[in-house]
Amino acid sequence: MNEESKRKILRQIPYGLYVVGVKGKDSQHAFTGSWLSQCSMKPPCVMLGVRQGTHSLDLIKEGRVFSINFLAKGDRKVMEQFFKPVPASGNRFGDVSYTLRRTGAPILDRAVGFLECEVRQIVEAGDHSVVIGEVVEAEAVKEEPPLVMSDTPWHYGG
């Protein structure tokens, strides 16, 4: 297989960008996610790809919940915050405010919409795990188009 061709075509798959909120026993955390898709209507479920061997996946396994925060196209700087390594202070959120609702996974106050999910299954799939979560709460907060990967110079995949 031609590796460059494979990488190029896999990066053509359209992806959203999300801030994924997770919780542990005594902490909240968030990271940028892009591999998300609905996988069931009844019950409503989504599947999320999360890199194995990460603190984020460990917290998903521990807390068994996650949130998906949709940000507006103009919130690229906010999204960038969740790409960065956690600062020495341990404050992943910095000045980005959030609330805790039904599941306890962080919901960003800037989100134009969000999902709250309870983990139903985690499947190992190569270097990532596929986390299947049942949507237990959802809200479209503002009528703004969400930030997606093609709005940025970033890519993840291939």
Describe what is shown at a glance.
By secondary structure, the chain is mainly beta.
Unreliable spans: none
How far is the first residue's CA from the last residue's CA? 13 Å
Strands, count: 9
Structural class: mainly beta
Fraction of residues in H or I helices: 10-25%
Mean pLDDT: 93
Encode the helix/strand succession as letters.
Answer: HEEEEHEHEEEE
Describe the structure.
With 158 residues, this protein is mainly β. It has one domain: Pnp Oxidase, Chain A, CATH 2.30.110. Helix content is 15%, strand content 39%. Strands 2-1-5-8-9-4-3 form a seven-stranded antiparallel β-sheet, covered by helices on one side. It has a two-stranded antiparallel ribbon with strand order 6-7. Strand 3 and strand 4 form a beta hairpin. The longest helix has 9 residues. It is globular. It starts with a helix and ends in an 18-residue tail after the last strand.
Annotation keywords:
158 residues; mainly beta; Pnp Oxidase, Chain A; seven-stranded antiparallel beta sheet; two-stranded antiparallel sheet; 15% helix; globular
Topology summary:
Blueprint: H1 3-10, E1 18-23, E2 28-33, E3 36-40, E4 45-51, H2 55-63, E5 65-70, H3 76-81, E6 98-100, E7 106-108, E8 113-125, E9 128-140
Antiparallel strand pairs: 1-2, 1-5, 3-4, 4-9, 5-8, 6-7, 8-9
